[in-house]
Amino acid sequence: MQTFNTKKVGWAGLGQMGSPMVGHLLHAGFAVEVYNRSPEKAQAVVEKGALLAPNVETVAQNNDVLFLMVSDYPAIESLLTPAVLAALKGKVVVNMSTVSPTQNQLIGAQLKSHHVHFIEAPVSGSSKVAEAGKLLVLGAGDKAIFDQLVPLFNAFSSKVYHYGDVGKAGGVKLAVNALLGIFNEAYAEALVFAEQFGINQADIIDTIANGAMNSPMFQSKIAMYESGEFPPVFMLKHITKDLNLAVDELEKANKRSPLIEKAAKTFSEANQTALSQQDLASIYTYLKK
Q1: Is the dihedral of CA 32, 37, 39, 43 positive or negative?
Q2: How many CB atoms lie within 10 A of CB 70?
Q3: Contact of 236 with 270, CB cutoff 8 Å
Q4: Which tens digits make up the pLDDT trace of 62-99?
Q5: Contact of 122 with 101, CB cutoff 8 Å
Q6: Is 11 exposed, middle or buried, given 0-12, 13-18 or 19+ CB atoms closer than 10 A?
Q7: pTM of the full predicted structure?
Q8: 18 in helix, strand or coil?
Q9: Looking at beta carbons, which pairs linking 28-32 to residues 24 or more positions away fall under 8 Å?
């Protein structure tokens, strides 16, 4: 069995999720070489001990394992240039970005054609969960390689799953995020519905919070509803992307899911407004109009 050096790894993507995840890796004693399209966003992890590389090719050359934590499939495509693919020969790419099962399978096929191993490992949890090091790692791909990466995953997660072949982890991630979108729209609709009867917002929030429909997710959004301010924990534009990916997968399978389709439509409409970069709970603001 081929083994890889996992004590020193590469990482591309230092947004709201990537930066705290790298911070946890560093705290756990791993050496991390990082790349980010905007170098200034790497400053926080560099101060914690990360090595900043000028480009992805350098990271690929210097490390057996390259983690990707970027916004979407086009961002991944832009990173996997011919030079980067050549530098990765015989190594491992771990995609922790949220893309569709089909897209992960395409990435896997592309990497395989260049003799690069591929692990699919999106995470479930918000930026606050990432900061706490309590993410869920949703994994798929070669189990022997995956198992070598588990100590790295443990640095920023509370639980690690392996579902089987590439594509399955992406399916789980879209299922979970579909629930996230549906529930945020449902809570927002319930608040707006109650308010049309002249019910005080605080009263309906308190009623939900003390009843069977309470949830940790609802609790995490209460301060946003009350203040009318929605600082991004998970941006509305990101849940919109994920819901639309789920709809694409449904269409490929010739399946229907009315709630996912409805949520995708509502969030897509809201995403065309100034709410795009606010937290997904700002769907409440959109529905109030």
Answers
A1: negative
A2: 23
A3: yes
A4: 999 999 999 999 999 999 999 999 999 999 999 999 99
A5: no
A6: buried
A7: 0.94
A8: helix
A9: 28/154, 28/155, 30/6, 30/152, 30/155, 31/7, 32/8
Number of helices followed by number of strands (H, E) in the chain: 14, 9
The residue type at 130: A
Count the helix, strand and coil residues of the chain and give each as a percent rounded to the nearest 5. 55, 15, 30
Rounded distance between C-alpha atoms, residue 97 and residue 122, angstroms: 6
Residue 261: its H or E element: helix 258-271
**H-helix segments, 125-215:** 127-132, 143-154, 168-195, 201-209
Find all residues with CB under 8 Å of 272, minimum gap 6, and list them.
Answer: none
DSSP annotation of 42: G
What tokens were used for 161? 């799953």
Show Cβ contacts of residue 100 under 8 Å, excluding neighbours closer than 6 positions.
73, 170, 174, 245, 246, 248, 249
- Of 70, 88, 69, which is closest to residue 4 (Cα–Cα)? 88
* Tokens 């050549």, located at residue: 86
Give tens-digit pLDDT for 38-58: 999 999 999 999 999 999 999
Paired residues of 119 in beta bridges:
94, 141
